[in-house]
Every structure is written in structure tokens, then in C-alpha cells.
Design brief:
2 copies of one chain form a homodimer.
Chain A lengths: L1 H14 L6 H12 L6 H11 L5 H13 L3 E4 L7 E4 L6 E5 L5 E4 L5 H11 L2 E12 L4 H7 L4
Parallel strand pairs in A: 3-5
Antiparallel strand pairs in A: 1-2, 3-4
Chain A binds a DNA duplex (25 and 25 nucleotides) through helix 2 and helix 4.
Amino acid sequence: MTVTETERWLELLEQKGSRITGPRKAIVELMVDADHALNPVDVFDRARVKYPKMGLVTVYRTLEVLSDLGLVERVHQADDCHMYLRAAQGHEHLLICSCCGKAAYFSGDDLGMLIQRISMESGFSIQGHWLQLQGLCQSCQPKKIQTQQGE
Amino acid sequence: MTVTETERWLELLEQKGSRITGPRKAIVELMVDADHALNPVDVFDRARVKYPKMGLVTVYRTLEVLSDLGLVERVHQADDCHMYLRAAQGHEHLLICSCCGKAAYFSGDDLGMLIQRISMESGFSIQGHWLQLQGLCQSCQPKKIQTQQGE
DNA sequence: CTATCTGCAAACCGTTTGCAGCGTT
DNA sequence: AACGCTGCAAACGGTTTGCAGATAG
């Protein structure tokens, strides 16, 4: 599954006329599998394990390419909006741990009626919506109970 | 209503032990009334009309104070997460124009069931949710139809 | 009168750009 | 062989900090 998904990303990259290089392969492999939102430096550190010559600039440039292809997207949190994650597919929404950034997508919201109502009341033409749940993942719950929600 | 709300903000500021100064009054007055998300420079430019000696640094510091008091909050958009707006009250959610930043709060979502389900399925303890609709406000719709969604 | 706030200038730091050399195709 | 990609170093720009003087209470 993961191997196939990596392949798919690399093929898309190729189709778009980009070259498949060592640094890009390393970044794609890690982003395909990431279950936490990662900032550019996180990506840099992880990618360097596989590809020691990696430069931070290449991380920025590769994330931009992947983002243009819709494979990766920026994750927004109250304090940090510079993290990246595999993009949502279709109607998925994000559930993210406010402590460690662990993330999972879910689906099943039904906002159709709400959106229609707000559209009528406001006169806006609605293009999209963002729904995101934030909480504490199972491994962060004990930590946070001990420390009363902060360090 | 607006005058009263301005008073309320200033009183809260005072209660917290802060001083009411010219620059702060100017910023509070403008943020209470703002119907568009504003970045620090926008705030600076608008506040300078009322208070010409205003410095940008004071804008940053005042927005932080207001944000700590929960009176103002950061607005997140795909491209720009550094805009501020009067904070949501209670269960309000944001509707924002992706073209001009015009913003309005609405209420009426019922996410309780969804949140409960996701909570069970994921094991996360859910602390909060973000729901935001993005679209084109009435005055931006004509512009964007002409230009096919962008320049 | 004192503590806080202000504006200026400088420091900071994450991100972007310019460029010469390298690697993919 | 040609063109895109890479890493380095330098530039950039928004935000934060240090500080001396101004000002609210």
C-alpha cells in the first residue's frame, strides 16, 4: 500500500515533467507515511537519515512541488501553520493532536444543509469549507492530565 | 453597541492591569468594528489615521494583549495565517471571503454527534473544533466571475 | 512618582533567491 | 548533451527584542 502510494507520487512527479532524484525520493517516502504533521525542519531531519547530503532548501522546494500536485498540504494549528501532511482525499477532514501533531483524516460530516443556509443568509457564494478537530491523542492524554494542559 | 463594546474591551484591559493609552484606544476601536480580517500592517495603517505617532511594534504588542484577553483572534486562510479579527463568541464559526477577507460569524452547526463518533473511533479526547466556510462575498463575486477565479 | 508603554533601531529567524556545479534523462 | 535539480551563501521580510524617553495612574 505504502510502496504503491510512493510509486503513484513519483509517477505524478514524472508526468508533470519533474525529475526523480534521490532527495525527492527520500522526501516522498517519508511524507507518504507520515502520521504526524511535519514542519520543513522535521522533514529535513528525517530525510537526512535516508539522504545525508539533503539541504533544507531542497525540502522547501520539494514540498512546494508536492503541494502544487495536491499530494501534500499545509496543516493549520493555533500556534503553527507551517506543517505539512499528505493531502486530504475527497471529503476527508483532519483530526490532529494539539500536543504532538499526530494526525488522522476522517470523513462523515454532512455540512450540506448548513452551507446552503449560510449561503442564503449571507449572500456569499461558498467555495469550500474547513472542518478540523483538535484534541489529544491516546499517547498524549496521560502527559497532559499530569501537567494540567501545559508544561 | 459599538461604543459599548469598545468600553467593554477597555475595561477588560484595565482590569487586567494594563494601561489605557492613545495607541491602544485607536487599535481597540478599529478592531471592535472591523468586518474584514486585518493583518498587522493593515491595523497599523488604519490606526495611524486616528493616532499618527503609532508604531508597528505597538500594533504587534497590542494585538498580543488583546489576543491574550480572548478579544481578538488569528484568522487562518490557505495563503495567509497572519490576520486578526474580533474573536468568536461562544459557538460562532467564521465565514470569510477568500478574495477580500470580509468576514462574518455564524452559528448553528451541530457537530456533537460527529465529534462523539470520531472521538470513539480514534481514541482522541477532542478539545475543540474549527469550522470555517470560505467563499466570495457579494461584492467580490462579479470580479471573480469576470477574471475566472484569479488574475 | 513609579511602573508601564512607546517608538526607534537592531537583532532574529524562517523562507526565498542567485548561482555554479551536478545528476537525470 | 541538455536541462532540471541541488546545495551553498546571501538576501529578504515579517516579527521580536533592547533600550531610553514619554505617559498613565
